[in-house]
Amino acid sequence: MLKIRTIARKLGSITETNKDIEQLVGWEADEIFEKTGIKNRYISDQNENSLSLAIDAVNKLDDKELHGCDLIVSVTNTPYYDFPNISNFIHSHFKLSKNVNCLGLNAGCTGFVDALELVNSYFKSSLSKKALIINTDTYTKFLNNKRSTRTLFSDGATATIIQNDESGFNISKIRFSSALNSQDSLYKKADCDEGINMDGPKVMQFAIGTVLKDVLELAPNEECVFFPHQAGKLVLGIFSKKLPSTVEMIANYENYGNLVSASIPNLIFENMEKLEHKNVLISGFGVGLSHKGILLNKV
User: 193 pLDDT exceeds 70?
Assistant: First the structure.
């Protein structure tokens, strides 16, 4: 069973307001907020990258908790090194036991949920007792200053320790889906300097047409806390209108923008008390286009 023991985070060191990017994107600050619902972003400086942010986040964890982990799963779309995985660097940097399994996922907005499912499999197979999930992304280093992307994304990393514990959650339902022929809706090519591109209308269509349907099917017939990927005002605004009254949707995109793979663990970090609830729904969606949603419940 999954018990989230603790979460640490490190955000990009530059706090950026809407006023700061008015000239860059050609919108007034009030217009940016009206369209995106975002007030602040956190941007990595020239000395920060996905690995350094990950190290800084892990460094905030309790040393005993960290050294008790026997599995590390790192998640990023924007690695500083193509290989090895960030998990390998973390293992080496913190001089962890040689009996730690290091895995890496090239995943975006579904990445935290993907990692939870993977950790759950290791727990069930008795291959792990305590795991560290690292989510880190620096999308702003690869944006081309288009309004559709530059106004939305932030940089940051989270480090989450999960333990196999009887007082934790069972994964009772899993939903996953991918839209065919939509790989080019949110992408970055490795062999060019084009940066990250996003087709906003296609992503919105996927979120409303596919993700929302999945979430409604996952939601239980009783009270539930919902941690969705912080995609932004438009998507989550529609979600809030369509979800049943029994589902409490949590949001913090206004203060952080879209942190990609670190979005959901950052949301949980600020709302750890909500994990006391019997039913917790988590939904990641975006790059792929893909969706992974899980329903956690306590016996």
Answer: no
